[in-house]
Amino acid sequence: MKSISLAALMSAALAVPAVAGNIEPAPVEAPILAPVPAPAPVGVDWTGFYVGGQAGYGFGDVEGTDFDGFLGGLQAGYNYDFGSYVLGAEVDYNFGELELDGDAGSIDQIGRFKVKAGYDAGRALIYGTAGAAFADAEIGGDDLSDIGWTVGAGIDYLVTDNIIAGVEYLYHNFDDFDDSGSDVDANTIAAKVSYRF
Fold first, then answer.
1. Is 122 helix (H, G, I), strand (E, B) or coil?
2. Partners of 70 in the beta sheet?
3. Cβ neighbours of 141 (radius 10 Å)
4. Chain Cα centroid distance, residue 57
5. Considering just the CA atoms, what is the radius of gyration of the chain in Å?
6. Contact 190, 178 (CB under 8 A)
7. Res. 90 pLDDT band, cuts 50 70 90
8. Is the pLDDT of residue 22 over 70?
9. Neighbours of 142 (CB within 10 A)
10. pLDDT in tens, 107-143
């Protein structure tokens, strides 16, 4: 009996290290990491001053006499971005020769002071505009100038954070131009490029 007990004890003693050596720790699973969220898109802020130049085409009529031609000039303005909409003001001055048919004269200068309101579509700004307009002309051999009004629409696009490119259409009306008895209706469409500060 002692020999059986001694043999059993020795077997148990030999088996314990074998069992202990064969026990492998439970595998540790790697933690599951949640994906890093993409950064929220940063909106475009149109707030700031800008200056630039424009060039375009004008056409219209003076009491039934048509005119057309090219014009170009400078503009400066300021926009304030309220989030989904933008308000601003702009002044511009243009030189050109909008020639009347039959050598009846020309409109040589057009200046404007406008307010504008638009929708902030990110890098694009779609706006309407209205204000006062000034024109200087030579009609029938007389030098004339007058103040009228203008209304129109445009779209600007931020090419970079500082460069704005756009296009703008404006309608102008001058009743009884410089007390001449002639009404002037003018349309302009211009490409514009500005530097934003």
1. coil
2. 57
3. 7
4. 22
5. 39
6. no
7. very high
8. no
9. 10
10. 999 999 999 999 999 999 999 999 999 999 998 888 9
